[in-house]
Write a structure and sequence with these properties.
Distance between the termini of chain A: 55 Å
Distance between the termini of chain B: 51 Å
Helix content of chain A: 25-40%
Number of strands of chain B: 13
Oligomer: heterodimer
Strand content of chain A: 25-35%
Largest interface: A-B, 20 and 19 residues
Shape of chain B: globular
Largest sheet of chain A: 6 strands, antiparallel
Strand content of chain B: 25-35%
Order of helices and strands of chain B: EEEEEEEHHEEEEHHEEH
């Protein structure tokens, strides 16, 4: 095996080595993998005691459903949650990043995070990437100034609304909201309306499907109702089960537990300041 | 009909107007924010506060105009602290102009800055796409403004009262809403004078009706919840 003549130090920055290979493959007719998007219906509404967020649970890779039960309601702070539509990696990354920034901010200030702080951090990040970070978010939470609900678009613009929908199923969900929303809904009425709106997206939009997740945030309390409704159960399961072809024969089994065999004996003086 | 592309950048089709009157200014705007052909927000507030006495009407790209007004609010706040007194409308407008002009390749937003200060009284500054700054007795902007140039040439006069200015504003925005597809929703106005700031809100059904417009109707859903009619008797 030949050794390199000179050992180059590792360079920083992007490596474009595979771009030529990708071009060559594309010319030969190979279509690259499409990235995972959450087709999605996400909604939020303000009710009398706080905010309710809702989301479907289908993640798609082009025409294929790659995750039948993904989580689209992301944690931002104990009192703030964010639903994400668009490219799944972008929504995960941006909400994780801002969630960490919010925690650092909480350590610095010693106070509960405010929804408007999360909004400004997200908006600044998305605007600086000029829409290339494809994350459309519904941000909701309750802080010392009251309940708040905002929508954030990939280009960085935001709206503050009493009820909001985003994603490919947003039109179906908005139709439900526009006909049935009123101010001062009770918790049960609010959850009912959110479930109706998400179901409307699930059954009428191809990019949304599977189950309904709901998150209720009130002053000092939050409830993350994962899979609150399962309107798409799997029917016709084969009772015979699956039988796999015979595996390779096992000749010998030896299990080595990975436990420390070394005993630590305290010698010398105890540490002193 | 183009397919519904919800990834299009948010733009505010818009009609925005700023008008001076004897003693202050009135700023007005519609409330429609569109993503392609879908109305993303039918009740948005396009008149944003910069300081206690200066407001700005935003049009064009929603993201660009929000970011510009956020930066100007921040700079004006610093400026007010350093100056020790409220900022003038001219300074606010020039800060907006500097951002718009120096980033003209990347921004797509037309703004109207209006306010009241003790030196010059009520002033309106129009800052359209390239970053020009123009001090005017009245300014119009946004896609709906195309339909208002003739109207203002005829209806505008010097030295109006506050009520006249406000009703001119509402009339103008409702005319633009009637003809421009990208404008709609409600009419919001902000009046700024020596006494302070007053916000007003005119929902769609209170606006005057123009040629071939039909009056507002109650939701047809009410028919569904109405009791079924009595059977006819001979």
């Amino acid at each position: 095996m030949s050794k390199a003549a000179v050992d180059l130090p590792p360079k920083g920055g992007f490596s474009f080595d595979l771009c030529k290979r990708n071009d060559m493959l594309a010319k030969k007719g190979l279509t690259g993998p499409s990235f995972r998007k959450t087709g999605t219906t996400i909604v939020g509404l303000i009710f009398q005691d706080g905010v309710i967020l809702g989301a479907d649970t289908r993640a798609t890779e082009g025409p294929i459903v790659c995750d039948k039960n993904c989580e689209k309601i992301h944690y931002m702070a104990p009192n703030i949650y964010c639903c994400g539509a668009g490219t799944a990696a972008d929504t995960e990354a941006v909400t994780d990043m801002v969630s960490s920034q919010l925690q650092l901010h909480r350590y610095h200030t010693g106070r509960e995070s405010r929804v408007i702080t999360a909004l400004t951090l997200l908006k600044k990040h998305l605007f600086s990437y000029q829409g290339y970070v494809s994350a459309a978010l519904v941000l909701g939470g309750v802080d010392c100034t009251g309940p708040h609900l905002h929508t954030i678009y990939p280009h960085g613009s935001t709206d503050t609304l009493p009820f909001a929908t985003m994603g490919s199923g947003s039109l179906a969900a908005m139709a439900m909201f526009e006909s049935k929303y009123k101010e001062g809904l009770s918790r049960d009425e609010g959850i009912q309306l959110v479930v109706e709106a998400i179901c409307s997206g699930i059954f009428n939009d191809l990019g949304s499907g599977s189950n309904v997740d709901v998150c209720v945030i009130t002053k000092g309390h939050k409830e993350y109702l994962r899979n609150h409704l399962l309107p798409n159960p799997r029917t016709y399961i084969n009772e015979k089960g699956y039988s796999f072809p015979k595996k390779t024969e096992v000749l010998m089994t030896k299990i080595t537990p990975l436990k420390e065999r070394v005993e630590i004996i305290e010698t010398g003086d105890a540490m002193e300041e | 009909m183009d397919s519904l592309n919800l990834d299009e950048p948010h733009s505010m089709g818009t009609t925005i107007i700023g008008v001076t009157y004897d003693g202050g200014v009135v700023l007005g705007a519609d409330s429609r924010t569109s993503t392609g052909v879908y109305v993303a927000n039918r009740a948005s507030d396009k008149i944003t506060q910069l300081t206690d006495n200066v407001y700005v009407c935003r049009s064009g790209s929603a993201a660009d105009s929000q970011i510009v007004s956020d930066y100007v609010r921040y700079f004006l706040h610093q400026h007010t602290i350093q100056l020790g007194q409220p900022a003038t409308v001219k300074v606010a407008a020039n800060l907006v102009r500097l951002l718009s002009y120096n980033n003209k390749n990347m921004l797509q937003t037309g703004l109207i800055v209006g306010g009241w200060d003790k030196y010059e009284g009520g002033k309106i500054y129009g800052i359209p796409l390239g970053g020009t700054i123009l001090e005017q007795p009245f300014a119009i902007g946004g896609s709906g403004s195309s339909y208002l140039y003739g109207f203002f040439d005829q209806a505008w006069k010097e030295g109006m009262t506050k009520e006249e200015a406000e009703s001119l504003m509402v009339k103008a925005v409702s005319l633009a809403i009637a003809r421009d597809g990208a404008s709609g929703g409600v009419v919001r106005t902000v009046t700024i004078n020596a006494d302070g700031v007053t916000r007003n809100f005119y929902p769609g059904d209170t606006l005057p009706l123009w040629h071939e417009e039909i009056p507002a109707q109650n939701s047809l859903l009410d028919i569904l919840s109405a009791p079924s009619p009595e059977p006819m008797s001979m």
